[in-house]
Specification:
The protein is of the alpha+beta class. About 30% of the residues lie in helices and about 25% in strands. The chain contains eleven helices and eleven strands. It has helices spanning about 15-35, 65-75, 100-110, 145-160, 200-215, 240-245, 255, 275-295, 330-340, 345-350, 380-390; strands at about 5-10, 40-50, 50-60, 90-100, 125-135, 165-180, 185-195, 230, 245-250, 300-305, 315-320. Strands 1-6-7-8 form a four-stranded mixed sheet, covered by helices on one side. It has a four-stranded mixed sheet with strand order 4-3-2-9. Strands 5-10-11 form a three-stranded antiparallel sheet. Strand 10 (about 300-305) and strand 11 form a beta hairpin. The longest helix is centred in the first third of the chain and has 19 residues, at about 15-35. The two termini are about 30 Å apart.
């Protein structure tokens, strides 16, 4: 995109109601996979006030106490203060989980079934998924969402380390970036809202966040004297988390992906095992796009897949480099199809997804992380792509 423009992205903290729900769903998923890697999990969570409701479909050989797992997840987030209505030891838990539909199972399972076209593992649902990468940051992610995530991670790090005892788990961050001819050149505004104890003054909160969060995270070269800094702009954020607002699994899909840069197919990630292409194919899309950018074949890249339920091959594969490609897009698409396989079973194998790794993804984005278990962030196909475009 030519000319100057401002683009904004937001992130939310672990204690945000929607992220509480995501965390519980992914914790249950990991608990299933830790005992039975072939677990089929679609776990949704709803939280409000002092109530947790989990529902969905789970078929697994794993055996564990769901209530204990849920309470531990809430405790790890940090809802353990006496002034929290939503408290790990006091919430009421309602469990509405049932087994996966056998009609869906036969489409996903790698076996023959009446009316099914092949005996291969099929996609767990129809739908479209996107992956994206760009050269704006070292993570090959858009700058606004990465800066927003970094602010949130720093705030949580300080809270859990006890550096400010008045900090509470709920928080939101937002960063606006000025672009000039498609390149990020300046942060024009930073918004940080954090839940806090009633005893903390506005001055204490703002001074602390300016010095220990914004000052430590946003590159100095990106800040100017006219950068707008807004910290707890309402003046008070004592009532937060599920006490202040309801939370639902999968309601922060833009936070989870690219902050509004690049498109989204609409499917949420958390609480879903990798047979669900909403999650696994989106991870694969990021893997492909990141390797294309890392290989220098384009400075921006978006990959789209589309699937039919029960069918093993994608019905479409598309690559868009937005005019930043160093070689023809036709060559890039041919190389992508040669280097990668997009069958659901092959995605699971290539990215080693049948492991209890998903709690590492839940907060501060599913992309742009360096954790060893997050295989879709590796750039180990660069050489193969370069060879394939020749």
């Amino acid at each position: 995109m030519a000319g100057k423009y401002i683009f904004s992205s937001e992130s939310v903290g672990e204690g945000h109601p929607d992220k509480v729900a995501d965390t519980i769903s992914d914790t249950i998923l990991d608990a299933c996979l830790s005992q039975d890697k072939h677990s089929r999990v679609a776990c949704e969570t709803f939280v409000k006030s002092n109530v947790v409701c989990v529902g969905g479909e789970i078929t697994t050989k794993a055996r564990f106490d769901y209530e204990d797992v849920i309470r531990k997840a809430i405790r790890d987030i940090g809802y353990i203060n006496d002034d929290d209505i939503f408290h790990a030891d006091k919430v009421f838990i309602n469990n509405y989980l049932t087994a996966q539909s056998p009609d869906i199972a036969q489409g996903v399972d790698a076996r023959k079934a009446s009316g099914k076209a092949t005996a291969e593992q099929g996609a767990g649902d129809q739908g479209l998924m996107f992956g994206y990468a760009c050269d704006e940051t070292t993570e090959l992610m858009p700058a606004p969402i990465m800066y927003s995530h970094r602010l949130g991670r720093q705030l949580t790090k300080l809270r859990k380390a006890g550096k400010a005892l008045w900090l509470r788990p709920d928080a939101k961050t937002q960063v606006s970036v000025l672009y000039d001819n498609g390149k990020p050149v300046k942060v024009t505004s930073v918004v940080v809202s954090t839940q806090h104890a009633a005893s903390a003054s506005n001055k204490t909160i703002r001074d602390f966040i300016n010095k220990h969060v914004i000052g430590k995270v946003i590159p100095k070269k990106m800040l100017g004297n006219d950068t707008q800094i807004l910290i707890n702009p309402t003046g008070r954020f004592v009532t937060g988390g599920p006490e202040g607002d309801s939370g639902l699994t999968g309601r922060k899909i833009i936070v989870d992906t690219y902050g509004g840069v690049g498109r989204h197919g609409g499917g949420a990630f958390s609480g879903k095992d990798p047979s669900k292409v909403d999650r696994s194919a989106a991870y694969m899309g990021r893997y492909v796009a990141k390797n294309i950018v890392a290989a220098g074949l384009a400075s921006r890249c978006e990959v789209q897949f589309a699937y039919a339920i029960g069918y093993p091959k994608p019905v479409s594969v598309h690559v868009d480099t937005f005019g930043t490609n160093a070689v023809s897009e036709a060559k890039i698409i041919r190389a992508v199809k040669k280097v990668f396989s997009f069958k659901p079973a092959d995605i699971v194998k290539q990215l080693n997804l049948l492991r209890p790794i998903y709690l590492h993804t839940t907060n501060y984005g599913h992309f742009g992380k360096t954790h060893k278990d997050i295989t879709w962030e590796k750039v180990n196909k660069v050489t193969a792509l370069k060879r394939a475009v020749k």
